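Cross-check.
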Amino acid sequence: MNTLSSLEEMIAALRCLPGVGPKSAQRMAYHLLQRDKSGALRLARALGHAVESIHHCAKCNNFSEEEICALCRSPKRDASLLCVVEMPADLLMMEQAQCYRGMYFVLMGRLSPLDGIGPRELHLDRLVRRAQENTCEVILATNFTVEGDATAHYITILLCAQGIKVSRIARGLPVGGELEHVDSGTLAQAVLERREVTG
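Predicted model, tokenized:
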């Protein structure tokens, strides 16, 4: 049985990144070894440290170096609101928009039976327990994909059975968007979810 050389092992390791195929992995490996050895060492140290020190927050399930993350510990957050997002990147987008000051629960994915991701893999039992603490409303901010819609629907059934108020972020036209550049599905959804205005 042949063992991989160090270079082959490095290229194989780089292929675990999303969207990185054999050629891209090879290019990255050659670049790091030829042009940026200090960067390669820094990357290796950062990856090793992150894997050892980062876990999931016991409350919101986001990545954290502490048992309870800083966001969950913050007294400035509204504990009566709980926003459910699919991934940590979605939480960051919500925070950057500065439109929400409540708490979060990060699913770390979405229901996808074909990929073997069910309610257990998303820790929905933890979400229900978290929502029962002192939450007045759960806001579902899952993506508007088939899987995201299915996830939102499943969570809605779970939480409504517990008597918890559930809402879902609206979908529609982007701010500053022009109708001629919007796809027909988005425009149709915006019309369906229209709201009354008063003068």
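The helical segments are 6-14, 22-35, 37-53, 70-73, 88-97, 124-134, 146-160, 184-192. The beta strands are 55-56, 63-64, 78-85, 102-106, 137-140, 165-168. Passed to J.P. for a second look.
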